[in-house]
Design a protein that fits this description.
Length: 311
């Protein structure tokens, strides 16, 4: 098949779908994430590792939300690739990748605090969490900027659209490094945390209830992460495979449509992150003393805190 003969584009009603979904997502997401930032930065006292990660996650989610109106506008008017388009695309992908990276860091931090509480006292601190978050911002921004600069995009292509049927190695690397590896880390850490929590027995009914809530919350966090992001990155992977084997244009077009719809689902994660901020902290904080006690000596356990399970 002549790859140059394919002209892949979004289906006509997609901008309308985006508009219907993104209006409530944008309004609710900005409200909740702004409120979360205000609480985390102005109303709480001592900084913790989880608080540092949550602030970074809220910032990434807010910045991603602010790109959605322009993204919808660009696709609604079928705007061509330009400098502004590349800047907007870069900001959009930077903040999505940062959200995934922070969720991964939080899952690993949660795992470390529960599984290895004594080592966690040395390895975890708000300052180290800040350095880790800052390092991620720098790496993701630099890599994305370099990719956008080196990307071979024709002036006749549309913004936020892969119009050609040529396989993109950059897309494959983004799927592997940007999602599949974080997915493995989040899944492994969450499963280990759930196993550790369910292994605990407590005669105190209230404590047992709190531990069960913590299990439900970790499970829900992992499920939301998978449901929101897995369809999108599987779609990107399938698109890469179909481009590589020179599938017919109509098949590639169907996969392209699926990717666009999956991206809408992925972007709703900005709201779901904020919703989790408000109901997980208390349960995990109250359940943590029992978990820590079973993992360390009594004279070493008093100051170990378990991070909240929100993502």
């Amino acid at each position: 098949m002549n790859l140059s003969s394919c002209n892949i584009s979004q289906y006509e009603s997609f901008p309308l779908v985006q508009l219907c979904v993104y209006i409530p997502v944008f309004l609710l997401g900005v409200l909740l994430n702004t409120l979360a930032l205000w609480v985390f930065c102005c109303k709480l006292g001592k900084w913790t590792e989880t608080r540092v990660y949550m602030v970074n996650l809220a910032v990434a989610d807010c910045l991603l939300l602010f790109t959605l109106p322009l993204k919808t506008l660009f696709q609604f008017h079928h705007l061509r690739v330009s400098s502004w388009c590349l800047v907007l695309e870069g900001g959009y992908f930077i903040n999505r990748l940062m959200s995934i990276a922070i969720i991964t860091l939080m899952a690993a931090d949660r795992f470390l605090a529960i599984k290895y509480p004594l080592k966690a006292k040395v390895l975890r601190s708000p300052l180290k969490a800040g350095f880790a978050s800052g390092f991620l911002w720098i790496v993701i921004i630099c890599v994305t900027a370099l990719i956008k600069r080196l990307e071979d995009r024709g002036q006749d292509e549309f913004c936020f659209e892969k119009s050609s049927a040529k396989p993109s190695v950059i897309t494959l690397c983004a799927v592997i490094v940007g999602f599949l590896i974080p997915l493995l880390i989040v899944s492994y850490c969450s499963i280990q945390v759930i196993a550790e929590l369910t292994r605990k027995k407590d005669e105190n009914c209230e404590r047992e209830k709190l531990i069960r809530k913590a299990v439900y919350i970790v499970s829900a966090n992992m499920a939301v992460f998978i449901i929101c992001f897995l369809p999108l990155y599987l779609g990107h992977l399938l698109r890469f495979v179909m481009d590589s084997i020179s599938s017919n244009c109509s098949a590639i077009q169907r996969v392209n449509n699926f990717v666009h719809l999956a991206s809408v689902l992925a972007n709703t994660n900005c709201c779901l992150d904020a919703i989790f901020y408000y109901f997980v902290n208390k349960e995990f904080k109250e359940a943590s003393p029992k978990l820590v006690k079973s993992k360390s000596e009594a004279n070493e356990e008093a100051d170990i805190q378990l991070p909240c399970v929100a993502h």
